Amino acid sequence: MKLPFRRSAKPPPLKTPDDRMTLTEHLAELRSRIIRSLLAITIGVIIVLAAYNWVLDFLLEPYRELCEEKGPEFCDGSLNFMGPLEGFSTRLSISTYGGIILAMPVLMWQLWRFIVPALHAKEKKYAIPFVFSTVSLFLLGAFLAYLTLGKALDFLISWAGDDVNPLFRVSDYVRLVGLMAAAFGIAFQFPVLLVFLQLVGIVTPQALVRQWRYAILVVFVIAAVITPSGDPYSMMALAIPMTLFYFMSALIGYFVQRRRRRAGRAET
Description:
By secondary structure, the chain is mainly α.
């Protein structure tokens, strides 16, 4: 005999966007995704903590190379901290940034699994390409920010004047590197967003091509606004790839559109 207080069975998985989850089910699903994401970030933080010295040397490399190239009268390649807790907070910041980057595949997978119930069956097959492209583009953007960091520092130090010697705090330097990596990595999600909007039918590749002039203008404005260092080298390094991604996204949309038309004709 079934007891009245027995826990009810797990609700069946949604098969179509016409199925609906209750508010309680949405909140339970969101909670489980957040818990898994936080667990992945925690593991990543622990890994970065274990390799902290190597990570810090890697982050300092652009600054040291700049100082070696310009000479000791320009900068000495060392970082400083001004308070007893600054070293600890810097270690924590680097570990947090690194943990999030290491957990990116899990984070993107959990995000995709959360939005899957709102998609059709044909759209759910893009899960692996979505995760792979978002993680790859984020890492590519972060690496490009790392490559342009030396030019950005050169620009910023030069603007201070010839008689001013830089004395960088380690927390400020790490914050700049983290903001640069985040800005470039998030901006490099631009093509993923455009392709996704085309897949769900919100925009068309024809519309993207028609509006390319306005799009390029918006891209350069966004690059100028979100670049933390504010230097022209970083802005161009961000704006040019985003412009190329715009046209690549439209091209991918054309291929998807042609394949869908062929599939439609084959069915009829």
